[in-house]
Design brief:
The structure holds 2 protein chains of 2 kinds. By secondary structure, chain A is an alpha+beta fold. Helix content of chain A is about 15%, strand content about 50%. An 8-stranded antiparallel β-barrel of chain A has the order 1-2-3-4-5-6-7-8. Chain A is elongated and about 55 Å long. By secondary structure, chain B is mainly beta. Classes of the chains: A alpha+beta, B mainly beta.
Chain lengths: ~200, ~170
């Protein structure tokens, strides 16, 4: 009994340490470049948009969801997107939010020039990632999906402070059911807080 | 005679439609609505007439048709509406500078109208109330986001939201 309690407390201790590590890493990642000079192509923005999930109706019967999250550029070409989606229709915020983490790459040149020059106004993006949900036979909230994403049209850029992603498609493979589904984002807007041209005005 | 009529019509049009402002436009929105028996997700097409350019309580009228997929995935036309909107005020001094790259006016609006609903197996009238707390405008373009609306019919209250709506004033 004592051994069991000990193991549980050890497990909790390790879990808390992991959580603390993740939080500190996120804080460092998001906070450090805000105070640094010469941030390069780093940028950070808020993501808002629509989302439809097709072909996984056994677990997700939502018709329309609201998408929200953060987008973080860490090089002129690559970015990390962390988004959650909550059901709007038919049942308002009824289910647990689905969370997706994607690393994406711009396909038509710089996504952010890292200077006060805006660079590309239009772009495409492709990426890979993982998804968390309770779409598994046990109903546990865990890692469930492998994702491949393609955004055929993006207007704006982090340098300009605003970006619109249109007709984004994310193909998702549920690792528990081997079912392939589609997340369709008609329109997603990114509003940038850090890394716009305003942060590069004092650069030569 | 025909030429005279044509010329008179042109002169009248010039007087009726001030050259400085576009009065007619169309809008497309994307969103959904939840009614008693079902829910619809889809688009609305609206034709808009905005006769004035007042800074406060600026009215506009619109006729709208909605298209939406119901819970069975069948495309339907749940309603037609006639809506009168009023822009409460218009200002360039607002905290939403990050919405657009260029200067854009903030003009939140509220609306009231009548609707003819075709869902639930009956054609029935309904009261339509709407708000656009995040409405932005340029002379020929309006941008609205997260605009809720409420409908009262013989089935009671129902609601919906236009996640975004784009209006282009072309005439």
């Amino acid at each position: 009994m004592e051994l069991g309690c000990g193991l549980v407390s050890l497990h909790l201790h390790v879990l808390m340490k992991k959580q603390r590590f993740v939080i500190i890493m996120l804080l460092l990642l998001s906070g450090f470049p805000v105070f640094s000079k010469g941030m390069g192509a780093f940028d950070l923005g808020v993501t808002l948009g629509s989302r439809n999930h097709f072909f996984e109706t056994g677990y997700d019967d939502s018709q329309l969801s609201f998408q929200y999250g953060m987008t973080m550029g860490f090089s002129p070409f690559y970015e990390l997107d962390v988004v959650a989606s909550s059901e709007l229709f038919p049942d308002f915020f009824d289910s647990v939010p689905q969370v997706q983490v994607l690393v994406q790459r711009s396909l038509l040149g710089f996504r952010n020039s890292g200077t006060k020059v805006a660079g590309m106004g239009f772009n495409m993006m492709m990426g890979f990632g993982i998804g968390f949900s309770d779409f598994n036979p046990e109903g546990r909230y865990t890692l469930t999906h492998l994702l491949v994403s393609l955004t055929p049209l993006m207007g704006g850029s982090p340098s300009l402070g605003k970006r619109e992603r249109i007709l984004g498609c994310t193909f998702a493979v549920n690792m528990y059911t081997q079912q392939v589904s589609l997340y369709f984002d008609l329109m997603v807007d990114d509003f940038y807080i850090v890394g716009t041209y305003k942060d590069h005005l004092d650069e030569i | 005679m025909g030429r005279k009529n044509f010329a008179c019509t042109l002169v009248l049009l010039v007087f009726l439609f001030p050259l400085s402002a576009r009065q007619f436009g169309y809008s497309l929105s994307y969103g959904g609505e939840r009614v008693k028996t079902s829910s619809y997700v889809g688009s609305s097409l609206r034709f808009v007439w905005e006769p004035f350019e007042w800074d406060h309580f600026n009215p506009s009228v619109g006729g709208e048709v909605s298209f939406g997929f119901d819970t069975e995935g069948v495309l339907r036309i749940p309603s037609n509406s006639i809506v009168c909107n009023v822009d409460l005020f218009r200002t360039l001094d607002h905290p939403f500078w990050f919405i657009a790259h260029n200067k854009i006016a903030y003009d939140p609006s509220i609306g009231i109208g009548v609707q003819v609903r075709y869902d639930g197996g009956l054609v029935r009238p309904a009261l339509y109330l709407a708000a656009s707390p995040l409405k932005f405008s340029q002379p020929d373009f309006w941008y609205e986001a997260l605009s809720p609306f409420f409908i009262y019919s013989s089935e009671g209250w129902s609601w919906g939201v236009a996640l975004f709506r784009f209006t282009y004033m072309f005439l």
